[in-house]
Structure formats: C-alpha cells, structure tokens
TrEMBL record:
Residues 132-142 have a biased composition (Basic residues). The active site is at C398. Its EC number is 2.1.1.79. The keyword NAD does not apply. It comes from the Bacteria. Keywords: Lipid metabolism, Methyltransferase, S-adenosyl-L-methionine, Transferase. One of its GO terms (molecular function) is cyclopropane-fatty-acyl-phospholipid synthase activity. Residues 156-392 form the Polyketide synthase-like methyltransferase domain. InterPro entries: CFA/CMAS (IPR050723), CMAS (IPR003333), MeTfrase_dom (IPR020803), SAM-dependent_MTases_sf (IPR029063). The lineage of its organism: Bacteria, Bacillati, Actinomycetota, Actinomycetes, Kitasatosporales. It comes from Streptomyces violarus. Residues 116-144 are annotated as: Disordered. Belongs to the CFA/CMAS family. This is Cyclopropane-fatty-acyl-phospholipid synthase. Pfam families: CMAS.
Length: 433
C-alpha cells in the first residue's frame, strides 16, 4: 500500500464533514493535504487503532504520548488548527452518536477499521495515570495525584522552569515581554502577590502549595515575614528546604509535607495560594475556602491565583479534559471565576479585587516550551520520551488555549473582615501597581 495518506485524508473528510486543515504523512511515506501546511505524521497503524478505541482527545493523546503521532511544522499553529477547525467544530456540529447515523460516516469508520488492521485495543502508554473515577479528593488520592505530576524529578523541572523554579503564570511588563527574562517576570509575579497581601515585617504567611519554595523565600527575604509552606510533594519539599538553608532563612521559613486541611497552627496574617486551587475539586472547594478563612486573623488577606475555564450554557454537561486528567493533573478541575468568587464569599471572605492575567500565562508557557525544546535530549534522559512528550503537548496546547480565551487565570484578593466590618484595606484599589 502506498496511498495510506490519501485514504486517511478522504476518511477524515467524511468523518469531519470538511477536509483536515493539516497535511498528513502516513507510515508508507505517502502524503496528502494542503501544500505548505503543518504535517500530521501518522507513524503506524496503531495510531488509528488508538483513535478507533478512544475517539477524540484521549485517543489522540495516547497516540502522541506513545510516539505513534507526531507533528512537523509549528506546534502551536497545528494545535490551533486542529482544535479550532476540526475538534471544536465536530463537537459542536454533531455528537459521535449523531454522526454514526450518517451512512457516509459509518462507511468512513469501516474504512478506518480496515486501514488500522486487527482491531485490538493498544495498551495505554505507561505515563497515563490509573486513578479511580470519580476522583473524590480524599487526602490519600490528592497526595497520589500530586505525586504523579510533581514527583517526576526536580532536574526536569529545572530545565522547564529555569532558576526561578516557579510553576505558575509569570507577570510580564510588556505585551510580548521582549526585554524581560522569565526569571524577572516570575520575580515580578511574586512581588505582585506580596504587595497585594500587604506583607510587612513580623507577619506570618501561609503559602499553600508552596512548590519549590520560591514564594516563601521571596516573602521572607524581601518583606521580612515568617512563612510556613505546605506541599504534598516529597521531592518539592526536599528541594525547597535546601534552597531555604542556602538562603540562610531557616529561622523564618518552615517547609512541611502537609495537606492544607491538616494545618492547625493559625491564625496567619496572610495566605498565598498560587496555582494550587485547581487541585481542590469542585465538590471540595467550599471546604477549601472555609479552611483558609478559619486560618486567617480578622483583617487577614488571601491571594488566590487560579486557572479558570469559561462557563458553559449547560453546566451539567461539563466534563474534565480527558488528556489533562489522564496525563497531567489527575483529579484537577477548573471552574469559572464567578464560581470561585461565590465560593470564597460563601466561606465568609469579602472579595476585594479580581485581576485577569490570561495573556501573561500564554507568554509564560511559550517560554517553558522553548526551554524544554532547547534541552530536549536531557529532558528525555531524565523522564523518558513519553513523559517529555506529555509536557511539551500540555504546555503548548495550554498556551494556545490561553491565547484563544478558552481558559483564563485570575488573581482573586479576598479579606477576612473583622466582626465590626473593618477590612484593613486601603481606600484606593490597586495601590500595589
């Protein structure tokens, strides 16, 4: 067979109702599709079997992680084309059940089955998380999920994140950040958080989901506060403790391997939660907010930095992203920012400021992908090719999602007002800018 690409192009056109916007190169060397367009490389028939057994995003993800599929050309452009011109249109226009009522679609599926070979379901790549459904966000399951994502080796994260070791959206001074390094942008983000919290020497800060200790070190060194940082990752905690010792800040920073639900030594003057609340789960979010509220002094502030999804017209149909849930953040859930604000206020907080920094995350993710690609061989040596491919796809796809306003990220500043209603907040908003 020397026409697999042409057959695939025709079958995809039947299935999707329009020609794919990318070029296809098949395992037999044949090519088809628009000249000059990015190329989707189908390395073997197993890729088709993965799509047949798990139609949609999870099948594509498995094929990518296993190396059965690849992309030649600009990765961001290809992902944008696939997401915008094929998968979103296909999901909006027709469900799989509706599509299979079409004789042409059924014929295309039969054609794919013949082209794919023996219809045995390939085993998922070993990088796929084996988590129970639904994810109940118990302390044990959350600890396992955090370990899946973060305990892949600090050396690997050093490649991606750089010296700042901050794994959340940076804060860029200009639209494209041409004169700003990633390290400077992450420093500016940490400083922004500290200023929003109004930190002053002698205060106590709780850093929930402290990662590799960057926020704790910045707050203690630059603002003179005492910090307790909590994480569920053993590797993060060991790394953070060494950094704290190297900075000579062991008298002001304590790093714990501890669930936020087990922190009992409040009250604190301020709490930072940066890129952690996505792991909490929708059903547990009010509990999360209430726990943090109880840990604050009257007048204490919370800075909740969190990714948000766009609300749907019918929220009952919302499903967790299968690729992210299986390969990146098992049990992770995104909520609209309005839901986050409502839950914080239900817990007793007064929300004082909401700032969207969506475009900043797209810039950050592109820098991370650039760093990963620049040291690709070493990244593969440290984590294996499958895990490295997971991170490259996840970060590039998220960059496109932020750019296209499919997801956002927000800093929500909330305060625990006193019984008499005093917030301790300045009269003029945004004094930190």
């Amino acid at each position: 067979m020397a026409d697999a690409a042409q057959r695939l192009q025709g079958l995809f056109t039947q299935l999707l109702g329009a020609p794919p916007p990318v070029r296809v190169r098949a395992w037999d060397g044949s090519q088809a599709g628009p000249p000059g367009a990015p190329t989707l490389v189908v390395r073997n028939r197993r890729a088709l079997r993965r799509l047949l057994w798990k139609p949609g995003e999870l099948g594509l993800a498995r094929a990518w992680v296993a190396g059965d599929l690849d992309i030649e050309g600009d990765l961001y452009t290809t992902l944008d084309l696939l997401a915008g011109d094929i998968w979103e249109r296909g999901e909006d226009a027709r469900t799989l059940t509706q599509a299979l009522r079409d004789p042409e679609v059924r014929a295309a599926v039969r054609g794919l089955v013949r082209l794919a070979g023996p219809p045995l379901p390939p085993a998922p790549p070993p990088e796929e998380a084996r988590s129970p459904r639904p994810h109940l966000h118990t302390k044990r399951s959350d600890r396992r999920a955090i370990s899946h994502h973060y305990d892949v080796g600090n050396d690997f994260y050093e490649i991606v994140l750089g010296p700042s070791m901050v794994y959340s959206c940076a804060y860029w001074k200009s639209p494209d950040g041409p004169d700003t390094t990633l390290e400077q942008a992450q420093h500016d983000k940490l400083e922004l958080v500290c200023r929003k919290l109004g930190l002053t020497p002698g205060q106590r800060l709780l850093d929930v989901g402290c990662g590799w200790g960057s926020m704790a070190i910045h707050a203690a060194r630059e603002h003179g506060v005492s910090v307790v940082g909590v994480t569920l990752s053993q590797e993060q905690a060991a790394y953070a403790r060494k950094r704290v010792a190297d900075e000579g800040l062991t008298d002001r920073i304590e790093i714990r391997v501890q669930d936020y639900r087990d922190v009992r030594d409040g009250p604190y003057d301020a709490i930072s939660s940066i890129g952690m609340a996505e792991h909490v789960g929708a059903d547990r979010y009010l509990e999360y907010a209430a726990d943090l509220y109880d840990l604050l002094k009257p007048g204490g502030r919370l800075l909740n930095h969190q990714i948000a999804r766009r609300p749907q017209r019918d929220e009952t149909t919302y499903e967790v992203d299968p690729f992210i849930n299986s390969y990146v953040f098992p049990g992770g859930e995104l909520q609209p920012v309005g839901v986050t604000v409502t839950q914080l206020e239900r817990a007793g907080f007064e929300v004082r400021d909401v700032e969207s920094i969506r475009e900043h995350y797209a810039l950050t993710l592109r820098r991370w992908v650039t760093r990963l690609e620049a040291d690709w061989k070493r990244a593969v040596q440290l984590t294996g090719p499958g895990r490295a491919r997971v991170w490259r796809l996840y970060m590039a796809a998220c960059a496109v999602a932020f750019e296209r306003n499919r997801i956002g990220v927000n800093q929500v500043l909330a305060v625990r007002a006193s019984e008499s209603g005093e917030s301790g907040m300045p009269l003029r908003a945004r004094t930190w800018n």
